[in-house]
Design goal:
With 334 residues, the protein is mainly alpha-helical. The protein folds into two domains: 40-78; 93-328, MetI-like (MetI-like fold), CATH 1.10.3720. It is 68% helix and 1% strand. Strands 1-2 form a two-stranded antiparallel sheet. A hairpin with a 5-residue loop joins strand 1 and strand 2 (294-295). It is flat. The N and C termini lie far apart (66 Å).
Length: 334
């Protein structure tokens, strides 16, 4: 017989806990746990990465600041050179010459209208075609995709494009701006690739609820592609805003179809021609623009560059969050 006590169960439990407990090696009861040392790569990489990004930012920002400084500097003084990021002799004469152009405001409106129409039509028709080519049940998706890819490598050239626009009766019309830009092969491939990554269960469940293809594209696919569409919209808008060759080739016969870039290009060409024909440093340093103001080709060129770049710089911050997320699409897979 073994004698038991009323608290025998508690004693046995304490003995079991003491036996199972193991002393912690290398550490006393009052000592804090030792932190692991950080690997050198985890310290060096952020430093190198930050340094390179700062240098790259300086390289990208300095030309813009220098152009702004030259545009705000007196034209005659700008010929001497040596201007960095701050104007030496502050003056607004260069912008007076630009904004005294009687056609610049109408050209600005036409550039805005052209850019908006091209962006909307390009996104609309390109996303429609991309949705069709992303569906597995569409049997001709591969041959049609191949045809569009071939257009990225083979181009007819400038003269055949001009003859096509002429034969279609679109010379000196607004259609010459947006009809040739309805669909972009590169944008088509980007949008189609992202649409193919969308789970088919979403479209299948919508079809079970009675939704058609157009409703699925507009209410389900398009909202999911918002980041990609925002990035493409920015690219298309920049290309359309900076373009002036289409105005020169197709719509130079009507003044009301002239764009801002084309008008600024004509002003710059006339200023450079006036400076060259004047002869010598003194002649090239003084060019009279519209409005009676005196400037120089180098200062006028800087002012034109700033005027043309400001609208896009104002639009970019609103699309930045979509631009960043759109670039990361496809980089992470679930």
């Amino acid at each position: 017989m073994s004698a038991t006590t009323p608290d025998g169960g508690a004693v046995k439990t304490a003995v079991v806990k003491l036996r199972s407990a193991k002393p912690t090696a290398g550490r006393t009861s009052g000592e804090r746990p030792v932190k692991k040392e950080r690997h050198p790569d985890r310290v060096i990489f952020p430093i190198v990465n930050t340094t390179l990004l700062v240098l790259l930012g300086i390289v990208m920002i300095y030309p813009l600041l220098n152009t702004l400084a030259v545009s705000l500097n007196d034209g005659l003084d700008a010929v001497k050179g040596g201007i960095s990021v701050w104007p030496r002799v502050f003056s607004l004469k260069n912008y007076d010459v630009v904004f005294h152009m009687y056609t610049i405001y109408q050209a600005f409106f036409m550039s805005v209208l052209k850019t908006v129409v091209i962006v909307v039509t390009n996104l609309l028709f390109t996303s429609l075609l991309a949705y069709a080519l992303s569906r597995k049940e569409f049997l001709l998706r591969r041959p049609i995709t191949l045809l569009f890819v071939l257009t990225m490598y083979f181009d007819a050239g400038l003269i055949p494009n001009y003859l096509l626009i002429r034969d279609l009766g679109m010379l000196n019309t607004f259609q010459a701006y947006w009809v040739p830009n309805i669909i972009s092969a590169f944008n088509l491939i980007v949008i189609r690739t992202y649409m193919k990554s969308i789970p088919e269960s979403l479209t299948e469940s919508a079809k079970l609820d009675g939704a058609g293809e157009f409703r699925i594209w507009w209410n389900i696919i398009m909202p999911l592609c918002k980041s990609t569409l925002a990035v493409i919209a920015l690219f298309v808008a920049v290309g359309s805003w900076n373009g002036w060759l289409d105005t020169l080739l197709y719509n130079s016969g009507k003044q009301w179809l002239s764009t801002l870039q084309y008008e600024l290009q004509k002003l710059l060409a006339s200023a450079m021609s006036a400076g060259t024909n004047s002869g010598g440093m003194a002649g090239s340093a003084a060019v009279a623009g519209q409005g009676g103001q005196v400037t120089t080709p180098i200062a006028l060129r800087s002012a034109i560059t700033i005027v043309a770049a400001v609208p896009i710089l104002l639009v970019y911050p609103f699309l930045q969050k979509y631009f960043v997320s759109g670039l990361m699409i496809g980089g992470v897979k679930e």
